[in-house]
Amino acid sequence: MYADQHNPDKPDLDSPERIGHFVEAFYERLLKDETLAPIFLDVAAIDIHEHFPRIQAYWEKLLMGGQDYHRHTMNIHRALYHKRPLTRADFDLWLSYFTQTMDEKFAGPYAERAKRIAATIADNMHRALNGP
Ligand code: HEM
């Protein structure tokens, strides 16, 4: 599980710039996926120029105590869910891209923590939306 943690070739996810790079690489995968891409592009019709800085600020808050994210993520996904239910399979897919992107580009304690937090939030979000 921690095999990559000390890989000197990969940086850790330990600065706002690196989180920014992670978000771009993660969304490159999400937005190529034929199941998930339409949720972002058609159902929510995100504006990437607004969305990316929010995702970056969200992870800065979770990983390094950043102060720039103040939105209600759960309510936003609940509103989304009413337009297009998010299933266990969707969450598994989302998390698999998150983990793949992380393992390909980053290694270290922050990267490991981000993966654990993402898995926990995905699980909680799925349960909050779909019931136990
Ligand atoms: C099935 C899995 C998921 C899908 C398909 C999904 C999809 C989306 C979409 C379409 C939006 C844009 C909503 C809008 O602007 O109306 C969004 C926003 C967001 N998502 Fe997710 N999401 C998923 C899981 C997660 C998880 C597990 C997290 C956290 C670990 C997360 C964090 C966020 C954040 C921070 C935003 C920005 C909300 C804002 O505008 O402030 N998402 N998501």
From TrEMBL:
Q: Which InterPro entries match?
A: Globin-like_sf, Globin/Proto, Hemoglobin_trunc
Any Pfam family = Bac_globin
Q: Which UniProt keywords apply?
A: Heme, Iron, Metal-binding, Transport
GO terms for MF: heme binding; metal ion binding; oxygen binding
Is this entry keyworded tRNA-binding?
no
Q: List where the protein spans the membrane.
A: none
Source taxon at top rank: Bacteria
Task: Give coiled-coil spans as residue ranges.
Answer: none
Tell me which residues bind heme. 77
What's this protein's name?
Group III truncated hemoglobin
User: What organism, scientifically named, is this protein from?
Assistant: Spongiibacter nanhainus
